Amino acid sequence: MAKLTSRSEDYSKWYNELVVKADLAENSGVRGSMVIKPYGYAIWEKMRDEMDRKFKETGHVNAYFPLFVPKSLFEAEEKNAEGFAKECAVVTHYRLKNDPDNPGKLIVDPEAKLEEELIVRPTSEAIIWNTYKGWIQSYRDLPILINQWANVVRWEMRTRLFLRTSEFLWQEGHTAHATKDEAVEEAEKMNNVYADFAENFMAMPVVQGLKTPSERFAGADETYCIEALMQDGKALQAGTSHFLGQNFAKAFDVKFTNKEGKIEHAWATSWGTSTRLMGALIMTHSDDFGLVLPPTLAPIQVVIVPIFKGEEQLNQISEVALEIQNKLKLKGISVKFDNDTQNKPGWKFAEYELKGVPLRIAMGPRDLENKSVEIARRDNLTKETRPLEGLDSYIEDLLKTIQKDMYTKAFEFRKDNITKVNSYDEFKKVLEEKPGFIYAHWDGTAEEEEQIKEETKATIRCIPLDDDVEEGVSLISGKPSKRRVLFAKAY
Amino acid sequence: MAKLTSRSEDYSKWYNELVVKADLAENSGVRGSMVIKPYGYAIWEKMRDEMDRKFKETGHVNAYFPLFVPKSLFEAEEKNAEGFAKECAVVTHYRLKNDPDNPGKLIVDPEAKLEEELIVRPTSEAIIWNTYKGWIQSYRDLPILINQWANVVRWEMRTRLFLRTSEFLWQEGHTAHATKDEAVEEAEKMNNVYADFAENFMAMPVVQGLKTPSERFAGADETYCIEALMQDGKALQAGTSHFLGQNFAKAFDVKFTNKEGKIEHAWATSWGTSTRLMGALIMTHSDDFGLVLPPTLAPIQVVIVPIFKGEEQLNQISEVALEIQNKLKLKGISVKFDNDTQNKPGWKFAEYELKGVPLRIAMGPRDLENKSVEIARRDNLTKETRPLEGLDSYIEDLLKTIQKDMYTKAFEFRKDNITKVNSYDEFKKVLEEKPGFIYAHWDGTAEEEEQIKEETKATIRCIPLDDDVEEGVSLISGKPSKRRVLFAKAY
Q: How far apart are CA B476 and CA A280, in angstroms?
């Protein structure tokens, strides 16, 4: 197996190679659409199941709304429509027919033209609020707390596996509330759920914050987000939660009678995370040998590799290995015993490193004699010899340790790559020499934000929600600023 | 709440009303597409999770393939293309723009016309076999055992909630094998998995069989199916499993080197079930009061309704009810305690009957005194008084009994509605007077099959796979037949 391009050599190439070689995903025959391969999908399933559990725990239920949005609904909320009109797939016909000029070929049947074009959903606010209209009459019908797992399509011109694809999988929460406060609280709550998931499940530290008006979701009054820092110093928006005000309720005429008997428009939120998180996971933890997966997300948590000459040795080792496997399974740990005889141990070691299996247990004749095994950690590449006795508990604890250590490592990396700067020159210098998160003062105007973006390609990732408030003057205009905001180049 | 139309009055109307009133689904603003509401989706999630477990248990893994199929791939397997060309949604453009004549409105941007049209997948054989081409070189790459959970679109002219919708949710398994025998075995195995799921999880008896050539999936060499009988005597195809031969491997040039070093085309299967199963579930068990759900699929298995006057009584009852709830939850039973004070017990009784909750526990002051509760079964509408002591174990057993009884009831119904007929006159008479499954002889020709369909609207649902073989002569042509086949009018 050819080695991966190293990260220092070409980070972008390393990423693309890794996604394909680790069997996570590949480009398809459809422009900009990916195939998520079984190993990649198994990781996504684990993300999905954990998020789904968290959504249900916070009172949400799942439902399913149509893939197609009629153009008249799509354009109802003007800002939202404007934001997505330039990148949407449009269904115009509902039938093909035989091509009279080319036997065996098909052409669009011009007689099967739709009266109204259908947009393949890039997001579902329009179709969902058009539905909520029928569900909401009284404050007693509120709140509505619904989530949907679905595919969406945004016609991206430049695509990259997981990070930016024309079709992607995601979840989108859509809630309706009787009061503004309740909706704002919901948007904040779900951003917290995302942060909790990212940090405790993906072992990926995130900064929670608010988007600036120019970076908000099209149609939102406020966008909350979680921002993560990748190994190459670029930021990745890992999840967003929007307070939509009454914009969609007004566009779709969703009114209810409140407790006081007055009629008003409902308040809305929406929030989403997508298969983009797979990209974030890869670029937070992986190394030049391949994937590094936190135990919580690893489809295989432990692999046992026998080292043997001949069938008799394999049989002896297998007996012990299967016992270890059973004990670990009882603890809910997923274990693969790789007794394949075609591939050499060295090949297997490299393969499971590439696939990011958190722990590898190797066992040879001498281990058999000593009643021990060799354990190798994927995250820090250390090895140790451990006795068979108590191995299952040891491994159970070790997996927890790995999870923590991976978070700590990523957290330390981020700490080392956040720089506070006080002048525009310094800002540009840091971006050049040590890219990462930059905390700097901003005057609050779209003009300054735009100028910085134009000149440096760095954007305001968010206005952090933490308490680290410090007054100063903004980078370019020199106007007063009440707190630093988070800049970075971003995926 | 207005009562449901009764089944005897108008079965079709009863079905449509029930789906909407029980909050399962509703029609959307998109022609032929439905909204699956949270309660309906919760039932579908249970179906999905159980099937997914069974697929994984039989060695399958999940993956995800693109929604869009480029026209050139779509038309590659001719029979498959022909089968779906007349009902497919076609994406022709990738952008909207502002309508210069109507401010605030959007139109399709003619400059954003796709070079090649994209078909919204009606099924994924084409896109998947185009992908498998890159995955299969040697017999060592086989078998590939993949399943996908996805949405698909078939442009149906006449739609009905769950039974026939333009967009629906489904799973589609797509496997590749080195030999014909292995592929046939896979197709049979998955049909068995479907039958097992239908009978043991949905409490719905099914007949396993083979489709006639004219009823086969477009592109299949053989289609296995499970057929269920609805309460109105119509059949419903609940799942299909196809042996695809080498048709797709040839269309997409998927070849591999076999063990003997020779190059040959791979063998394929595909198999699917969809949200149509929701319709089957409803029409197998439900009654004039509403849904009847088997305990395995009920989002709420037990509801506790307090019967009280005043807050003090409610508090007393609540104490006991919460204890019951906790004990049942420990046994993995989902329980709702409905202590809402707005709605009267009678209203609640009707509501949970409509929603098909398998068991209702009612508790009033006298029950409190007697340390007892009233238990009502949804399936057979019987009631009994039971002591609090040992209630949790009693209910656990009772839920299993209900599951069995529901299957038995449906099985008995089917037995009573299978008629063996030996002449065409008898056939037509039975269809008229007592519609259901009809076992009759067929001469094996498409002509006789077509004539019967034309004249009676009954189709051959399947050639059963059971051992009940009995020779005879066919209905119209009078030619010899080796076994009876299963006829019915169908959904």
A: 66
A332 interface with B at CB cutoff 8 Å:
no
Per-residue pLDDT reduced to its tens digit, B357-410: 999 999 999 999 999 999 999 999 999 999 999 999 999 999 999 999 999 999
CA B483-B486-B491 angle, 5° bins: 165
Q: What is the DSSP string of B50-113?
A: HHHHHHHHTT-EE-B--SEEEHHHHTTSHHHHHHHHTT--EEEES-EEE-TTSTT-EEE-GGGE
Is the per-residue pLDDT at B411 higher than 70? yes
Give the separation between CA B375 and CA B383, rounded to whole angstroms. Answer: 6
A447, two tokens:
């003009």
Is residue A2 pLDDT above 80, yes or no?
no
> Could you give the CA distance from residue B423 to residue B440 in angstroms, rounded to a whole number?
8
A319 touching chain B per CB within 8 A: no
pLDDT band at A157 (very low <50, low <70, confident <90, very high): confident
Count other C-beta atoms under 10 Å from residue B277's C-beta.
Answer: 26
Of B19, B1, B479, which Cα lies nearest the Cα of B275?
B19
The rounded distance, in Å, linking the Cα atoms of A149 and A62 is 8
Q: Side-chain half-sphere of B33: how many Cα atoms within 13 Å?
A: 23
Pairwise CA distance, residues A273 & A171, whole Å: 6
Q: How far apart are CA A85 and CA B114, in angstroms?
A: 16
Pairing of strands B61-62, B144-153: parallel
ipTM of the complex: 0.97
Q: Residues B68-77: what's their mean pLDDT?
A: 97
Break chain B down into helix, strand, coil percent, rounded to 5. Answer: 35, 30, 35
Domains of chain A are 11-285 (3.30.930.10), 295-413 (3.40.50.800), 420-488 (3.30.110.30)
Sign (positive or negative) of CA dihedral A34, A37, A43, A48: positive
Q: Given A38, A64, A119, which is nearest B63 (Cβ)?
A: A38
What letter represents residue B47's amino acid?
M
Angstroms from A18 CA to nearest CA on chain B = 17
Number of neighbouring beta carbons within 10 Å of residue A170: 18
Q: Which of B20, B28, B133, B250 to mutate to probe the A interface, most A CBs <10 Å? A: B28
Cα separation, B73 vs A381, whole angstroms: 45
The 10s digit of each residue's pLDDT in A35-79 is 999 999 999 999 999 999 999 999 999 999 999 999 999 999 999
Q: How far is CA A443 from the centre of its chain?
A: 31
Coil vs helix vs strand at B55: helix
φ, ψ of residue B441 in degrees (nearest 5): -85, 145
Contact predicate A353/A320, CB 8 Å: no
Q: Determine contact, residues B131/B150, Cβ cutoff 8 Å.
A: no
> What's the rounded Cα separation, in Å, for the pair A430 and A418?
10
Tokens describing residue A359: 């722990």
Q: Buried b / exposed e across A409-446, counting CB within 10 Å, b at 16+?
A: bbeebbeebebebeebeebbebbeeebbbbbbbbbbbe
What residue ranges in A369-490 does DSSP mark as E strands?
A: 372-377, 383-387, 418-420, 437-441, 459-464, 472-473, 480-481, 484-488
What length does chain A have? 491
> Chain A closest CA to B167's CA: distance in Å?
7
CA gap A294, A299 in Å, rounded = 10
Helix (H) or strand (E) holding A2: none
Q: How far apart are alpha carbons B320 and B366 in whole angstroms?
A: 13
Which residue is associated with the tokens 């979701």?
A217
DSSP string, B423-435: SHHHHHHHHHHS-
Contacts of B11 (CB under 8 A, 6+ apart): B231, B232
- Mutation target to probe the A interface, by most A beta carbons within 10 A, among B20, B35, B175 is B35
CA distance A336 to chain B (A): 14
Q: How far apart are CA B361 and CA B373, in angstroms?
A: 6
Other CB atoms within 10 A of residue B70 CB: 23
